[in-house]
Amino acid sequence: MASDIVTRIADRAQRRRKPHRPGRPLAFSALTRMILLFNLAGLIILIVGALVLNEMREGLIEARVASLRGQGELIANVLIEDATRGEPIAQLDTDEARQVLTQLYIPEFARVRLFTTEGALVADSWRLSDRVRVRDLPPIGEGGGFDLDAGRLEEAFEGALRSTVDPLRERRLTRDLTLEEEAATAIARGEAVAAERINEDGERVISVSLPVQRVRAVLGVLTLEATDVDAIVSAERRALLPFILFAIVVTILTSLLLTLFIAQPLRRLAVAADQVRHAGPRRAAIPDLSHRRDDIGDLSTSLKAMTEALYDRIDAIERFAADVSHEIKNPLTSIRSAVETLPNTKDPESREKLLAVLVSDVGRLDRLITDISRASRLDAELARERGEPVDLQAMLADIADLYEAVRKDGEARIVFHRAEEESVFVTALEGLLGQVFRNLLDNARTFSPAGGQVTMTLDAHAAMDGGPAAKVTVEDQGPGIPPENLETVFERFYTERPPGAVFGAHSGLGLSIARQIVESHGGIIAAENMEDGEGGVRGARFTVLLPLHTAL
Question: Is 545 among the domain residues?
Answer without folding.
Answer: yes
